[in-house]
Specification:
Elements: E1 14-15, E2 18-27, E3 30-37, E4 42-46, H1 47-52, H2 60-66, E5 77-78, E6 81-86, E7 93-98, E8 103-107, H3 108-112, H4 121-128, H5 134-147, H6 171-178, E9 187-190, E10 202-205, H7 207-211, E11 219-222, E12 225-228, H8 229-235, H9 240-248, H10 253-258
Antiparallel strand pairs: 1-2, 2-3, 3-4, 5-6, 6-7, 7-8, 9-10, 11-12
């Protein structure tokens, strides 16, 4: 380190995108400083150039000016990452969401150069060997529905407060809990449609069973049995629209399901809802 007073101490001072870190060396009476650039790179610059403003970056600033404006990566995919927006704290970094549902901030160069392809989960996925399976896809889409605002089903899940429990942010934990009753013709279902994705509230179900467990499903308790309106329409041999219309007009359950209809439910036909 030079003697006190011989060279001005620039430690911690900012010059454009550069922050002086420490004295590097002296040459021909000039002092040189090791600097850190906002883009993440390091360089050594002459103190005079820093103070005069002729050196403002490691060189990336000049590169950006030649391109007129930085390339917009929003919406682009790099491996398992989809770019959301530019980082507010560093213009060379971008906020991304991974296929697994996690978010991360990544340098632009690392994305475009292929150095970063996931939030870090990709290496872990190789360990369980199931990253290309149907089961892994179900888990991934479950997390996207709850955690990715750009996902087409987010509004009906994460948008209304449905979340994935902390334990299930790891695929192996999800699979360990759910593999016992898994079958290829089944999909993941929440028992309580307003509850979260967690071991106590999830099961494997057929699409028909899923259809009977939505927010729009009308469940009716009649003579000690609770069934959907579609199921009751089959049992009492009446059209679903007739039963639904009666309920909307304020009919009681007993009258709705027992009073004869001029529009019987056609044998073998499917209910209209």
């Amino acid at each position: 380190m030079p003697a006190k007073g011989k060279h001005m101490d620039l430690s911690g001072k900012k010059f454009g995108k550069l922050t002086a870190i420490r004295f590097s060396h002296a040459e021909n009476g000039q002092s040189f400083w090791e600097c850190k650039c906002e883009c993440g790179s390091s360089c050594v610059s002459r103190a005079g150039n820093l103070k005069s403003g002729s050196t403002k970056s490691c060189g990336c600033l000049k590169h950006e000016s030649h391109n007129c404006k930085p390339i917009d990566l929003s919406g682009k995919r790099f491996g398992m990452l989809t770019v959301l927006q530019r980082s507010t704290s560093n213009k060379t970094m971008w906020q991304c969401i991974c296929d697994c549902g996690n978010t991360s901030t990544v340098y632009r160069g690392h994305l475009r150069g292929g150095l970063t392809r996931s939030c870090g989960c990709e290496e872990g996925n190789r360990k369980h060997g199931m990253s290309n399976t149907r089961q892994y896809g179900i888990w991934r889409h479950m997390r996207n529905r709850c955690e990715n605002p750009n996902y087409d089903q987010y509004e009906d899940y994460g948008g209304r407060g449905i979340s994935v429990c902390d334990k299930w942010t790891e695929f192996t934990e999800f699979w360990n809990d759910m593999k016992g009753s898994y079958a290829e013709n089944l999909t993941i279902e929440r028992i309580d449609n307003n509850g979260n994705y967690e071991p106590s509230n999830c099961r494997w179900a057929t699409m028909a069973e899923q259809g009977c467990n939505t927010r729009r499903t009308i469940n009716i308790c009649f003579r000690g049995e609770t069934k959907t309106l579609s199921e009751w329409s089959r049992i009492v041999n009446m059209n679903w629209t007739t039963l639904n219309g009666r309920i909307k007009r304020g009919w009681g359950i007993e009258r709705t399901l027992t009073e004869p209809s001029l529009r019987p439910y056609p044998p073998g036909a499917k209910p209209s809802a």
